[in-house]
Fold these 3 entries.
Entry 1:
Amino acid sequence: MRRLRIAVLTLESTASAEAAARVVRESRHDVVFIGLSDPYRGGLARTRAMVVRSGPRILPWMVVEFAAPRLLRARPGGPLMDAARARGVAPVALGDVNGESARAMVAQARPDVIVTCHFDQILVPEVIAIAPCGGVNLHPSLLPRHRGPMPCFWAAAEGGAAYGVSIHRLAARIDAGALLAQRAAAPPAGASVSAAARMLHQVGAAMLVEVLDAMAQGSERGRDLPLLPYCPFPDRSALADAARRGVRLTDAADLRAARALGGVAR
């Protein structure tokens, strides 16, 4: 099996930090680049737009996922930074992955494949093409269902919907590339949306490590999927309907998980 050169792109969050760290730590290939998206890019205008769409119910989820791991951090870094240091790779902040400077940094690393895990920026085809083997993404849903940024919410909101993880090729459309691997995995009964996302990202990390090995051996086989509707961030009505049926975006256990990412005792 040849060793691939891997560029990992992620958005450090409570949902995905441990999973991204696992990919960096456990892959048998050479991690040559780690790019971190900034959840606060766009400043207050971006946050305000999300709150206008989703209403105040979305705020606790945003705090637990993105703010708490940073605000409660007791030491520099976290699991992803620890894994990066062990690899000898310094993560780089990416304000715009498709911008000229980011493209140049990725190209300089000469990756064979680009891996995205909870990365909230859409790569244009020219960036994907930097890697000869293209790109692969971890998505916590059973594609083609629940394409979009909060698939665990939509699975919970549907009630009785199947949960799972898909590893798929990056393509010009969101969560629409050829399927490389898929596994059903049910979170514990009563789990919050945040808890379900954490669990599914961990399942997906192990799958992603296996897919990279298959790519190195030339044995991966993609399967095109039908394109079902895109599921955006939920609006006020969807959140209210889900809350009436007992769906919780987050809870105290999720806050403890966020604290633990920063090295604060549970």
Entry 2:
Amino acid sequence: MQSDAAATETPEQLRVALDQAQRQIADMAAAHEAFLRAVSHDLRAPLRHVTSYGALARELLQELSQELPGQPPQLLEAMDFLATMEGSARRMALMIDGLQAIARAGRAPLRLQSLDLAGAVQQARAALGGAADGVQWQIAGAMPPVQADAELLTQLLTQLLANALKFSRGVAQPRIALHAEVAPAGRVHVTLQDNGVGFDGTRAQQLFGVFQRLHREADFDGVGAGLALCQAIAQRHGASISATAAPGAGCCIRLDWPGAAAPGCSG
């Protein structure tokens, strides 16, 4: 039986098998990143053609509308078609930007160090600029340090705060709370809670898929790449991210992150 054969393998054979498995995983990860880079790069050229020729087509239609008496229904319809095409092109550009951001986060050098989490949160808030005005912030002053890459952690926190801000804007008194605490096994648990529109909690895992959205584009902008980026960054750090929510009751994002005393991870 296979289990009997495995039991008779020597430590050296097991080490070789483990090395092979790790190389295969690394090769698969590299191939995945290369695919994302190629797709995001190669789609730029045809997208530029769509946006460039769309603008030229709009100019021609506007000139034609000035030459023709009245506004023929066909011309107005053509203008509507063109507006839809241009809007879709802008959305596709944002999707490509999202893919590129995920690819960069996956291959960027991971410079791990002990970081002041409270300071990283303040940097993320500052990156939001005036968009953060008018919100009641409840940010814990003291937080445990974490083991992280400074740039990637700030990118993740900025995305999470911006997301909470976006879905809280419609409520009368938007409120965003963030705190962190030391957890067992040298981990740090971070909780980000907003009082926004929330969503169906049974679909929470869909949030972290690429281009997954739980709200209509007409209600909230975005293409559904931000939380996928956050998950990619968390995974590189040996961390996890999850969400709970209910319609009209806001959303709670939880991070389980290595504490500063944890051994360094590589990526």
Entry 3:
Amino acid sequence: MSKASFSSGDLIADRRVDYARMLAEGGDYSAAIDLIGQALELAPDWAAAWDLLGSYEEKAGNVAAAIAAWRRLEALDDEGLFGARLKLAAHKAGPAGDGTAVGYVEALFDQYAPKFEDALVGKLGYRVPELLDTLIQEEMARLGLTGFDKALDLGCGTGLMGARLRERVRVLEGIDISAAMIAETARKNIYDSLQKAELVASLNARRADADLVTAADVLIYCGALGPVLTALVPALRGGGLVAFSLEAHDGDEDVFLRPSLRYAHGIAATRDALVVAGLDILRFETAILRFDRGAPITGILVVARKPALELSAANDGEDGGDVAA
């Protein structure tokens, strides 16, 4: 979502929206809404202004008006950069759809990349890479593993997970949907290779060559686990490990979309999805992953293993078919 997305091409409309932002930052949402309305009279097809209008109406408690703004936004935003569909779904005003909202997630993290680590680690107490790495090391010790031949870090971001894995992995690959995130992590020289791709598409294009796959705070943007695990398991060698985190809920739904536009997964449904995918569950724990507006976010930490007997015919007889021990 580039800065250009926030210009209507009409200087007066732009100035009114800039002033509306200032008022909203001070908590005067009513005045901000009025100014956004004036701007939209001048530039009625300005998607970014409709997005702001929906946000300010929501914060002012005008949910019906917010939904109306997001419906207009959805019609204007063909690429889904502003996440209108997700915002409607989070307010039970439409379906979330299946899979990742690629346009929205890519735009979100392209915009977020320069301040990602400062915001997530410094301000929100983000702990997922540390927590997952501890579980991985404990399972390595229990299984008698000394390292991994090849690891795949899904949604690698700025390399927070990769930095912890590096010394125990011979070949470390990173995949992320955001080019800006990849640019940030490329400067650190953590990964042997980096790929900009949507994770399910990337996994579907691979053979069974990884003995570790990680996804730290990534699947919270993917919705249902089934399609992800269906793509992930064939990418693992027999005996390979997968470690990931999810945001959790205790309700009856398998998964639901929170107002944060992140998915929360049911604890029982997550266990079921792992079993259906043919994975052996090694660790399954709940923990506080981070804080959001001062409130703790509880999540699930998973380490699972692909049974060693599930080696594909393509890997039979190849060197390094199992996890390094």
